[in-house]
Each structure stands twice: as structure tokens, then as C-alpha cells.
TrEMBL record:
Annotated PANTHER family: RNA M5U METHYLTRANSFERASE, TRNA (URACIL(54)-C(5))-METHYLTRANSFERASE
Gene3D superfamilies: 2.40.50.1070, Nucleic acid-binding proteins, Vaccinia Virus protein VP39
Keyword Methyltransferase included in the entry's annotation: yes
Organism of this sequence: Akkermansia biwaensis
UniProt cross-references to Pfam families, sorted A to Z: TRAM (PF01938), tRNA_U5-meth_tr (PF05958)
Originating gene: rumA
Name the record gives this protein: 23S rRNA (Uracil-5-)-methyltransferase RumA
Family membership: Belongs to the class I-like SAM-binding methyltransferase superfamily. RNA M5U methyltransferase family.
Record-linked CDD domains: AdoMet_MTases
Length: 407
């Protein structure tokens, strides 16, 4: 049977559903294997560096093609058995079939490639710091369901790999903490019982907290990081891999304070993770966070942890430096923005303030590296690039870039 060719399919260099045999030699930061046919780049999800594969083309773009994996003809020596039976169907994980050491190697390399190709910076990148747990590390999951058209039980889980709509039913999730998996069957049962009352569908929350799992966005969650205890609303932002957090905050603390900085601004501070974890190294600390509830919890976390030299403002980070009276050359600014990166307003007023040190933390190296071009223009030099693997088995990674103002 011949496949119907989608409208708009560009037939060069390959015909629709043409099957190719190719060697995979790299991994894109979207998690796809990269191979070449006569020099033409082909992206193949779930194919790994070292594989020889058969792949079926479904799209030709201006300078690359996309193809589905049909068969692994010769497996990469780095392939391992995935833990989850839904691996390859569920869109949550991309790398369960890749040895953890090689996941880390490629995440490090992706950062170096982005720096070179996107920002024109040839910089040494430290090897990605491993998560102490390769599985059962996530402290929060948010499975989704759509209301079934014909009644019956909905699929409750995550988007299907390669789909923007279809949900895969996920009864257990091996990257979620064990306590979450214990509660998941009960949470799913509650959805089945209530599904008739939903108009369309919904997303449910399971957030691990000291002493249990929370399923209500407005309940207060509690997490210990090193010697500190953080409270925050379960539906607000908090980092999702508690096992790596002490390594992560220790590294940011060292980077922010190693040149004798005395003052700290934590922009995009959430409930105070960096501001409070780093506070003992600074004379004064200011955190800024747009979510009022997170900023309230940051203040309360400062009090409950006995930290009296940290203040928190509920405000847009884009308009904060006019109010900062710290001496700029002795100030370190930690930036940890959402995935879209920093706004131009934020960067403009940050550069006008001109702190001696900036430690830029990001869960999206693509926008982080885009922003580095602005730091370069403003007279900052990168002194360290350190990826952290907060998200094993997935394409996601966190990266910490340290910048110093040039004299
Ligand atoms: C990636 S989270 C980091 C939070 C915190 N650093 C942590 O590690 O827990 C980004 C935070 O930025 C906040 N945010 C988003 N836009 C903001 C803005 N324009 N100004 C200040 N904070 C903002 C979000 O509410 C969120 O808490």
C-alpha cells in the first residue's frame, strides 16, 4: 500500500516514505540521532550514535530531513535495555536505551556544540555532573488526560512520542520517585471516578514532599536541601531532582563567591533555593521573584531557617536593579530564568548595574547561549561552563555559566 503524501511535502532530496540506510554519528539537543546520506543531514529519533539504522523519511526541510526509525541494522555498543515498557511510545524519555555514561558525554558535547555554532564561542565545557540517581529521581510529575469521547476510562499519562495531542497511558513512571509511583494508582482511580464531571480533560499533580505525596496545587510542600528546609506551594516552581540539588547549589555558591563577592542578587529566585543556600557566603542577599506566593514562601523560608540578611521582593526581574544599592563590583547575580531565557529589559538594566560576577543557571541551554552574545557585547567573559544532569533518561539538561566583568 502506498502512503498518502501530505500536502506541502517537499519531494527533494528524498521521496515521501523513502527508506534510507545510514550510520548515526551524533545526537541533537532535541534528543534525535543524526546521520548523513551523501552529506545531507537526517534526524532520526531514538537512533543513537554508533548505530546503523534503516529510517523512513517523512519531511525534507531546507537543509535537513526528518525520518522515523524503522530498524536498527547494527546496534551501537552503548545501547542498554530500557527500564520502562513504554519507552519509545511515551514522549517523556528519549535516552533509556543509552548507557548513562554516554548520555552525560553527549549532553556535555551538545553544550559545547551550541556554544560554538550558536554563539561562535570555542570554550571548554566541564563534563556534565551526573545525577546521583539515574531512575526514580523526579519529585514531581503532572500526568494529563483528555475526556474520552465515547465514555470509559481515559488514558492518563504523557504525550505520545512525536505527537502534540495524543496521551499515552502511564500506570507507573520509572523516572518518578518511588513514593509517587505508590500513590499513582490511587490518583488514577480518582480520575476514573470523576471523569464525567470534567468538560474536556485535566492535568493532575503528584509532588513528593517530606512525609508524603501532595496532589493539590495549593497545598504546601516541603523539601530538605542540605541543612535547609524549603516550603513552597506544590503547584509553584521547585527543582524536580532533589538528589542532585546539594551538588548543584554548592557549585553555584562556589562560583558566585570565589572572587570575594560580598553581596548577592538572586533574580528569578522562586522560593529562595539559591538565595538561601548561598546566604552564608554573603553579607546581604536580595531575591526577586514574580510569583507572589513563591516570594512569600522565600521570606518565610528565610525566617524558618534563621537567615536574617536575605530580603525578597515580589516583582518583575526586568525592573529591579534601579532599587539595588549594593556596590556593583562586589555583587554576584544569580540568574535562573524560565525556559524562554532573559528578556532584553532584564539584560539592559543588569548591564547598566554592571555586577562583577553573574552565574547564569538555565534549563534551556539554547536560550542561555543566545543570551551569552549580549553578555559578550556588554563586556563579560565566560569563566566556566558546567552542565548538570537534573533529568537523566531525557533530552533535558541544566547548565551553569559563570561570567566575569572584564576590567
Ligand atoms: C526556573 S525557575 C527558578 C526558580 C529558583 N531559582 C529555583 O531554583 O527554585 C524560574 C522562576 O522565575 C520566575 N519568573 C518568571 N518570570 C519572571 C520575571 N519576569 N521576573 C521574576 N521572576 C520570574 C518563575 O515564577 C519561577 O519561579
Amino acid at each position: 500500500m502506498t502512503a498518502t503524501i501530505p500536502k506541502g511535502f517537499h519531494p527533494e532530496p528524498f521521496s515521501y516514505h523513502q527508506e534510507l540506510e545510514l550510520d548515526i554519528d551524533a545526537l541533537s539537543n532535541a534528543g534525535d540521532g543524526i546521520g548523513r546520506v551523501d552529506g545531507w543531514v537526517v534526524f532520526v529519533p531514538f537512533a543513537l550514535p554508533g548505530d546503523r539504522v534503516k529510517a523512513r523519511v517523512w519531511r525534507n526541510d531546507r537543509n535537513y530531513s526528518s525520518a522515523d526509525l524503522v530498524e536498527v541494522l547494527r546496534p551501537s555498543p552503548d545501547r542498554v535495555e530500557p527500564v520502562c515498557r513504554l519507552f519509545g511510545t511515551c514522549g517523556g524519555c528519549q535516552y533509556q536505551h543509552f548507557s548513562y555514561g554516554r548520555q552525560l558525554f553527549w549532553k556535555t558535547r551538545q553544550v559545547a556544540d551550541l556554544l560554538r555554532l550558536q554563539a561562535g564561542l570555542e570554550l571548554p565545557v566541564n563534563p556534565a555532573i551526573a545525577s546521583p540517581r539515574e531512575y526514580h529521581y523526579r519529585s514531581k510529575i503532572t500526568p494529563h488526560f483528555d475526556k474520552p469521547k465515547e465514555g470509559g476510562k481515559p488514558a492518563i499519562g504523557f504525550l505520545k512520542a512525536g505527537s502534540r495531542r495524543e496521551v499515552v497511558d502511564v500506570p507507573q513512571c520509572p523516572i518518578a520517585m518511588e513514593c509517587i509511583n505508590e500513590v499513582l494508582p490511587m490518583a488514577r482511580k480518582s480520575v476514573y471516578q470523576a471523569v464525567a464531571r470534567f468538560k474536556r480533560g485535566a492535568t493532575i499533580l503528584l509532588r513528593a514532599s517530606e512525609g508524603g505525596v501532595i496532589t493539590n496545587n495549593n497545598a504546601v510542600a516541603c523539601e530538605k536541601v542540605g541543612t535547609l528546609e524549603f516550603h513552597f506551594l506544590a503547584g509553584d516552581f521547585f527543582q524536580n531532582n532533589p538528589f542532585i540539588l546539594p551538588l548543584f547549589t554548592d557549585y553555584v555558591a562556589r562560583q558566585a563567591s570565589m572572587d570575594g563577592e560580598e553581596f548577592l542578587v538572586d533574580a528569578y529566585c522562586g522560593s529562595g533555593l539559591f538565595a538561601l543556600s548561598l546566604a552564608e557566603k554573603f553579607k546581604k542577599v536580595l531575591g526577586v521573584e514574580v510569583s507572589e506566593t513563591s516570594a512569600d514562601w522565600a521570606r518565610s523560608n528565610a525566617r524558618s531557617n534563621g537567615i536574617s540578611h536575605a530580603e525578597f521582593l515580589a516583582a518583575d526581574a526586568g525592573a529591579i536593579f534601579a532599587q539595588v544599592d549594593f556596590p556593583a563590583e562586589k555583587t554576584a547575580v544569580v540568574i535562573d530564568p524560565p525556559r524562554k531565557g532573559c528578556s532584553m529589559e532584564f539584560l539592559t538594566q543588569l548591564f547598566a548595574f554592571g555586577p562583577g560576577k553573574v552565574v547564569y543557571v538555565s534549563c534551556n541551554p539554547a536560550t542561555q547561549i543566545r543570551d551569552l552574545a549580549e553578555f559578550d557585547k556588554a563586556g563579560y567573559a565566560v569563566t566556566a561552563v558546567q552542565p548538570f544532569d537534573l533529568f537523566p533518561q531525557t533530552k533535558h539538561l541544566e547548565c551553569v555559566v559563570t561570567l566575569k566583568k572584564k576590567n
